[in-house]
Amino acid sequence: MRFVVAVLSILAVHLCTAVPLFAETHVVKLYDFYYEPKDVSITQGDTVRYEWVDAFHDSVAGNPPGLTALPYQNAFNTGLDDTLPFVREVVFTRDMLVNLPAPNNRYDYYCTPHFTSGMVGSVTVTRTAQEFTATAAAWQVVPPNNSAGGAECSGTLNGEETEFSINCQHTVSNATSAALYEGFLGEEATKICDLDLGNTISGTCTLTQDQANKLYDGRYSVIVASASFPEGEVRGQLARSSVNRSISGKVEFLDGAGLSGVTVSNGSRNAVTASDGTFTITGVSSGAYQLTATRNGYVIVPD
């Protein structure tokens, strides 16, 4: 039997969604010369739908002309209507709230032609906490080891993204320390915050917005060390909780040609590569996975 080496190009995935499962739409109507309702309260991820009843109005975030621009100036601008009916929608995503922050999460807005007539309004947003999970294992440590220990972790980033609380159930013998670290899977990690170690691991870390962004992007992990592995026995890369995600990749020869008919598995679900070597495993939860790939007559190793 002739053995040909192929390369499995994707080993792990951090996939998750930032869109709330039950986002709502809130309707604001534009009359001459007021918004109805003038002030609305919503939840992060909700949509504000502006519906024109009377013509020649708009909704622009920030201070009106002549006043000092606010940090969220022009975070949204519906534009002026040309004809009726006229509708515009604004989604208050996490990206908007983080990158164009408003004091107390209140976004004031105005009508460009009519703010002097008192046509102003506001949207106040309640931030939502985000849930994270991690399954710690020896293969995620840099360099990996042969430990049979593990940990199942769950964490919560508070709505204002200033604190991250975590709890882990672990099976590491003679554990000596546990901490939250920064670094993508496969990278050396930098300690961010020590965690309390006992039969369970727990703790709350104070984060800057930059650190919260890195957590959100899959850069953070939990590492548990022991007397046998003082630099880290198991590591669990944190990902936002989500289900029905997918893992995509390619199995290819060293020259880049794809290999079909390969069964790729994340340990619980499988996919078979297409004629060009590509595959997609569907129906998985967010997380980090060590993939395997098999086909009779071939030795397939990760790159």
> Helix/strand-derived class?
mainly beta
What share of the residues lie within helices?
under 10%
Query: Uncertain regions: pLDDT < 50 for 5+ in a row?
Result: 1-5, 8-19
How many distinct beta strands? 25
Largest sheet, spatial ordering of strands: 15-16-12-11-10-19
State the distance separating the first and last CA atoms.
Answer: 23 Å
Q: How many helices does DSSP assign?
A: 2
Radius of gyration: 25 Å
Overall morphology? elongated
The ordered string of helix (H) and strand (E) elements is EEEEEEEHEEEEEEEEEHEEEEEEEEE
Average pLDDT level: 92
**Beta-strand residue percentage:** 35-45%
Reported for the largest beta sheet, the result is:
6 strands, antiparallel
